[in-house]
Amino acid sequence: MKYLLILLLAVACKGQSHQSDDTVYYLIRHAEKDRSNSNNSNPHLNAMGKERAQEWKTRLGDKGINAIYITDFNRTRETAAPLATYLNLEPKIYSATDLYSKSFKAETKGQTVLIVGHSNTTPAFVNSILNDTTYKELNDSNNGALFKVTFIDGKPQVSLQQFEDGF
Fold first, then answer.
1. Could you read off the pLDDT of 85-120 as tens digits, one per residue?
2. Helix (H, G, I), strand (E, B) or coil at 45
3. Backbone angles phi and psi of 84, in degrees to 5
4. CA distances from 59 to 28, 54, 56, 79, 144 (A)
5. How far apart are CA 114 and CA 19, in angstroms?
6. In DSSP terms, which residues pair with 160 in a beta bridge?
7. Which among 84, 65, 80 has a CA at the least distance from the CA of 26?
8. Cα separation of 63 and 57, whole Å?
9. What sign does the CA torsion over 74, 46, 53, 165 have?
10. How far apart are CA 47 and CA 76, in angstroms?
11. What are the pLDDT digits (tens) for 2-28?
């Protein structure tokens, strides 16, 4: 009888749990970069950016993220680093010219993923997921936008939050 009750509870709870094919994407722009050398096309984060990267770790550390994708730039790598270290994940490089490809979709299906990009690629990535042009390029001073795209029953739902300095 005890085992039958456990089995019935497991079956009942299964229908209420997060479906294994549901996918969640968190998309952010890299944190504030060092602008002291305008000729440097691959700058590191400045002090404020390093602080924001730590804040992203705090904000996203309990979201169940099991994959992190970055572009191959110091600023995206450094933005993702605190969270990647905390979650013991190795960030994967994605191409900013091949957003939301078939292979990316297949690789991330059913996962919760952080994607760190740029003022142009982050909204473009969201648009690519939506197959739409809803979101425009972020203002160059905007490093606190958080897009969340959740797939439920195969349909994407988007929310956008804006966090100022210090969250």
1. 999 999 999 999 999 999 999 999 999 999 999 999
2. strand
3. -60, -45
4. 12, 9, 5, 13, 12
5. 19
6. 147
7. 65
8. 10
9. negative
10. 15
11. 433 333 334 344 434 344 468 999 999
Return the pLDDT at 63: 97
Please give the span between the terminal C-alpha atoms of the chain, in angstroms, as a whole number. 52
CB atoms near residue 63 (< 10 Å):
14
CA distance 95 to 93: 7
Q: Which two tokens stand for residue 48?
A: 């404020």
Helix (H, G, I), strand (E, B) or coil at 100: coil
How many other β-carbons are positioned within 10 Å of the β-carbon of residue 124?
20
Q: In the chain, which ranges are E strands?
A: 24-29, 67-70, 92-93, 112-117, 145-152, 155-162
Say whether pTM exceeds 0.70. yes
Going by their DSSP bridges, the two strands 112-117 and 67-70 should be labelled as parallel
- The identity of residue 104, as a single letter, is F
Half-sphere exposure at residue 78, Cβ-oriented, CA atoms within 13 angstroms: 18
Radius of gyration over every alpha carbon of the chain, rounded to an integer in angstroms: 18
